[in-house]
Amino acid sequence: MRSKKQIDKEELDIRYSNWVSMLIDLIKPKNLYFVGGRGTAKTTDILVKRLIDVIYDMPGSTIFFVSDTYVNATTNIIPELIEGLKRQNFHYGIHYVIDEEPPAHFKKSTRHLFDYKHTMIFCTGVVALVKSLDRQSMTAGISGVHMFGDEVKFFDDKKINKSIPTLRGDSIIYGDSPFFMGQTYFTDMPDTNQNQFDWILKQEEKMDLKQIYAIFQTALVINQIQWDILKYKKTPDFYEKDINRLQKNLKIWQERFKKIRYNSTMFCLVSSLVNVDILTFEYILNQQETLAGGFEEFKTAILSFKPSLAVGEKFYGKLGERHFYNDGYDYDYYIPYGLSGADQYTCKGLRYIKTNMPLEAGADFGNMFSLVIGQPQDEHYRVLKSMFVLSPEWIDQLGANFVNFFKDHNRKQLYLYYDRSGNNYNKQKKDNASQLKKAIERDKDGKPTGWVVMLMSVGQGNIPQGLEHDMMEVILNENNPNLPKIRIDQNECKELKASMELAPLQKTIGKDGNSKIIKVKTSEKKEVKRLPMESTNMSDALKYLICRKNWILIYRRKH
Questions:
Q1: Model's pTM, two decimal places?
Q2: Using 50, 70 and 90 to split pLDDT, how confident is the model at 275?
Q3: Would you identify the CATH topology of the domain 19-205?
Q4: For residues 500 and 484, is the Cβ–Cβ distance under 8 A?
Q5: CA-to-CA distance for 13 and 11, rounded, in angstroms?
Q6: What residue ranges do the domains of the chain occupy?
Q7: Judging by DSSP bridges, how do beta strands 485-489 and 62-67 pair with one another?
Q8: Are 518 and 466 in contact (CB under 8 A)?
Q9: How far is CA 110 from CA 11, 62, 100, 526, in A?
Q10: pLDDT per residue as tens digits for the range 341-398
């Protein structure tokens, strides 16, 4: 058994990482499929370090960042990558640039660029392009040498398969790299009950365990030789011939390491426990005790077990793919701004918004202030956008967010629907609904924004959960022509989509002895930062938008 080696800060650049990240750093497979629990530092650590490996191993090449939508790439993926690059001491203008001509010290790319929009260019000459699955024509005909994707549980496998042929590159220049034509994908555990895609789990069968283990053993030999060289150079009486012997041996093993990695695939399915040294075991225990979904949620979120919620246990059991649309962005608006155009993220980029029609919104004033915005459009009711604020932000911030996103909407009229609790203290103008109305109609300095908000739920009674369930069953079934056919923008309403798909149903016996249906709302007691994608709050905002007086009357006439 080898003794532990003491490392001081003068000898090495000390960095912190979990053992799975270090294992991937050692093996460096061609293809990496990674499914990890909460807190495993998938993007900012593991993905970014692998990205750096690729750009140095294939300088001057073209790579792809895959995203479900181009807008998601500009507003989420690129900012996450930038944060991870900062942690690896990569700096803008020195190691990479976005949407601009690279500085003179950058190596030249093999791709001739006429326009630098929509590019992320690295100091090694690597050009990174976004391949969005909702607009694949943007990169049609362009070939690349490696493909990266994050949160791939949202990626339709049919669309991914169409993208694979673009991985061809130039084998004469880059074919010697083990990363050539490789794929790197990350996600947490997919939930097919939420219409997520689990194709990544099927990639495990592509992994050759014997090959991966052989690569690992080879990497350990290389690591040992590198350590010996480092320590030997520190001794005052070392001989140059001994250093040369070690370096010659290192070169032999590095060549073996490169050859054995060709066509290698590594599949990782890990829990949050891999990062327990940083998260602490107390964090894991706390998650088990406090997760509102109990042990079932703990298994999925922390241990990365497959979820087992059946369709019959869902409150919105009739919700399906037809109720969502994926083509809600007007790319004629977004594309001119490039990858750095996150500031242009406004209602102008929505394909289906009618700017000359009033907007409608449902608001929930629970543990998370939620707003769901829509418009009736012929036979369909388009749910265009979901918004929220978390503590310590308040209603003023939600109002400001609404005004900012819809600043270019022409007809500034908003019909606001909400829970009857929003009317509390109405006479004193201290109720939540009146405060949101004020926050939308006037800015923080009291100046008019141009918006006029109509409060539509004054004096409205309670909407029982059983009524909501039964009415939504009819609406989602689309068998009553007098009720709207709901169509939800799945990209702009991700929180709403998750809220509806996760909402559990429970049957109980009421005080009158009759069976009643309730929406289980224990998820609203989770820690604040997890509410947007895991609680039922946002679905309640939709409830108030849809379960309005006139539509309830239409529903009751036939039921």
A1: 0.74
A2: low
A3: Rossmann fold (3.40.50)
A4: no
A5: 7
A6: 19-205, 209-263, 273-304, 312-558
A7: unpaired
A8: yes
A9: 37, 8, 17, 50
A10: 667 889 999 999 999 999 999 999 988 999 999 999 988 999 999 999 998 888 999 9
Residue 459, classed as helix, strand or coil, is coil
In sequence order, the 6+-apart residues with CB closer than 8 A to the CB of 493 are: 372, 383, 384, 385, 386
Tokens of 355: 């700017």
- In this structure, what is the dihedral angle of CA atoms 287, 291, 296, 298, given to the nearest 10 degrees? -20
Candidates 1.10.357, 3.40.50, 1.10.10, 3.30.420; CATH matching 312-558: 3.30.420
Other Cβ atoms closer than 10 A to 61: 28
Tell me the per-residue pLDDT of 431-459, one tens digit each, with 9 for 90 and over.
899 999 999 999 999 999 999 999 998 87
Q: How far apart are CA 534 and CA 532, in angstroms?
A: 6
Half-sphere exposure of 166 (CA within 13 A, CB side): 26
Cis before 103? omega within 30: no
In this predicted model, what pLDDT tens digit does every residue of 11-41 receive, in sequence order? 555 555 678 889 999 999 999 999 987 767 7
Residue pLDDT, tens place only, 167-204:
777 889 999 999 999 999 999 888 776 678 889 999 99
Distance CA 79, CA 418 (A): 34
Q: Note whether 27 and 178 are within 8 A (CB).
A: no
Query: What 8-state DSSP symbol labels residue 144?
Result: B
- CA torsion sign for 493, 519, 193, 377 is negative
Q: Phi and psi (nearest 5°) for 152?
A: -75, 0
